[in-house]
């Protein structure tokens, strides 16, 4: 069964606008970690932000913030003030114990 | 600088050949992982290793083999039994094999094409 769901189609975003990428997850564990990674066309996976299941505050890292709604099992990524360099695939991932599982990703294209 | 080095960046394989993808890390991480990525798909776990001389199958291990003789090295062999090996392969490592607040550090990937 798929553990991480990212269902949005590819998105076009105007430069300087904010964009929200949806992620829902499925787990019965109490302790887990949620991560977002960025993958530009070069292929490398770049860590963006982390949210722990016990964290009460939403995580923020610069222009990235994570809207964590535990009861809904939702961990949406918000990118504020989009830049052209934000054009990439974005992956939501969940770590339960020893393994990190990924969603299928969201394609974001920032247009000037 | 510490990191993960994958080589080669591009690899071409003839049908029926075995090929080995290299992954080396100098981060002193205990755990290492191999993922496969196909277009339109997320990353799928092939194999992972928590300590030297030990490794476990992931979700799509058929047609692949690994070894972990040194802490810093985790090579992946794509065997002729893998029916559709053309894909992008990513190696990753983590400092802790159990704690969920540790994410993974990734290499830059190897793109394998069967010709």
Name some characteristics of this structure:
heterodimer, A: 112 residues, mainly beta, six-stranded mixed beta sheet, four-stranded antiparallel beta sheet, 12 strands, 0% helix, globular, B: 115 residues, 11 strands
Question: What do these coordinates show?
Answer:
Chain A has 112 residues and is mainly beta. In chain A, 0% of the residues lie in helices and 52% in strands. In chain A, strands 2, 5, 6, 10, 11 and 12 form a 6-stranded mixed sheet that branches. Chain A has a 4-stranded antiparallel sheet with strand order 3-9-8-7, with no helix packed on it. A two-stranded antiparallel sheet of chain A has the order 1-4. In chain A, a hairpin with a 2-residue loop joins strand 7 and strand 8 (64-69). Chain A is globular, with a radius of gyration of 13 Å. By secondary structure, chain B is mainly β. In chain B, strands 2, 4, 5, 6, 9, 10 and 11 form a 7-stranded mixed sheet that branches. The relative contact order of chain B is 0.33. At the A-B interface, strand 5, strand 6, strand 10 and strand 11 of A face strand 4, strand 5, strand 9 and strand 10 of B.
Rg of chain A is 13 Å
Considering residues with a beta carbon less than 8 A from a beta carbon on another chain, report the largest interface and each chain's count.
A-B, 28 and 29 residues
Uncertain regions of chain B: pLDDT < 50 for 5+ in a row? none
- Average pLDDT level of chain A: 94
Count of extended strands of chain A: 12
Largest sheet of chain B: 7 strands, mixed
Strand content of chain A: over 45%
Strand tally of chain B:
11
Which word captures the global form of chain A?
globular
């Amino acid at each position: 069964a798929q553990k991480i769901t990212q269902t949005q189609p590819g998105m076009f975003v105007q430069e300087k606008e904010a964009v929200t990428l949806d992620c829902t997850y499925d787990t019965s564990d109490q302790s887990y970690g949620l991560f977002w990674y960025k993958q530009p066309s070069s292929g490398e996976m770049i860590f963006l932000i982390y949210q722990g299941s016990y964290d009460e505050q939403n995580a923020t890292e610069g222009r990235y913030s994570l809207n964590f709604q535990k009861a809904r099992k939702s961990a949406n990524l918000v990118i504020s003030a989009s830049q052209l360099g934000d054009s990439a695939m974005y992956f939501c991932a969940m770590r339960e114990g020893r393994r990190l599982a990924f969603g299928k990703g969201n394609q974001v294209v920032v247009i000037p | 600088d510490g990191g993960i080095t994958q080589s080669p960046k591009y690899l071409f394989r003839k049908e029926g050949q075995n090929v080995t993808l290299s992954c080396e890390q100098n981060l002193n991480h205990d755990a290492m992982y191999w993922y496969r990525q196909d277009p339109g798909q997320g990353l799928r776990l092939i194999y992972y290793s928590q300590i030297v001389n030990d490794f476990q199958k992931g979700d799509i291990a058929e047609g692949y083999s690994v070894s972990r003789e040194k802490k810093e090295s985790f090579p992946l062999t794509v065997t002729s039994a893998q029916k559709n090996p053309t894909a992008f392969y990513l190696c990753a490592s983590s400092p802790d094999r159990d704690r969920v607040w540790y994410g993974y550090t990734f290499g830059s990937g190897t793109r394998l094409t069967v010709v």
